[in-house]
Amino acid sequence: MRMVLLAYFVMCLIFGTTFLAIKIGLQEGWTPYFSAGFRFFLAGFLVVVYGLVTKQFAFPTKKQLVPFLLTGLCMTGMTFGTLYWAEQYIPSSFAALLSATGPLFVTLLHAKIEKSKITRVQFVGLGLGFLGIVLLTFPSLSVQFHLVWLLACAVVIIGESFYAFATVYSKKVLKQGISSLMLNGYQMLFGGLSLLIVSFFVEKPNLSTINGIGWLSLLYLVIIGSVVGHGLYYWLLQKTNPSFPATWLYVSPFLSLVLDIVVQGEKIHLLSMLGGIVILTGVYVMNQHIVKTAFLKKEKKMVS
Predict the structure, then answer these.
(1) Where are the transmembrane segments (predicted)?
(2) Domain map (residue ranges) of the chain
């Protein structure tokens, strides 16, 4: 269980930097659908090649193609297609705030599918997490309330509903004996391809205008953000439950703020500090059984 907590921490650390990396890439000239598609197609290709060469998995069967395609379209195509498009019009911190609706959708959808009740403790944890993100990002929000802004906000939330479906659906796929590495590789490959197809019809990307910073942001998102980060996400999904790994969406805005302070010298607001504490409290409350199990196992080892 300690490996679960370590993987969760590393995943949150990685995903906490991706919102800013996406924003930088868009500012440096990348078009949203092409950059998102290229990122995930390349990442998926690398994971698939690695899996095939090391014989950890084979080419998908006809029966496996549908789950991989569906997961890729929802988890990568819809979730990140909407996020990349929206970050053209809203700040990355606000995109992170809206993305925090993901765990709420996951918990509600999982409870409905499994016909299980959401406990009061889970409701409290979800509420604390969302409240914390509001407190965290509120001091730095400086957006203009116009139609495009409202549309961008709605698009991110719609994307998170697809993210929730893909998360719950992926758990069922993994129960069929498919490895998390295989699912992650093929879903990124198919999801990235769907975004590149959209880009072909609606965009005209010009790679000659992309500078070194733009290419570095894309490389970071491919290797660290997608291959490593999403690999850890699916591993956690296989080892725990759909709600636990999805709570990275509560932690990532806090980490993004810390990154802004260290790299860009941004001053932290007292309200933001309070928000960070509330976020971590909410994550603990919603998943306290996993944390307690980890510490109990550690104590038993020390006694023995």
Answers:
(1) 30-53, 65-86, 92-111, 123-141, 147-169, 181-201, 213-236, 248-265, 271-291
(2) 2-298
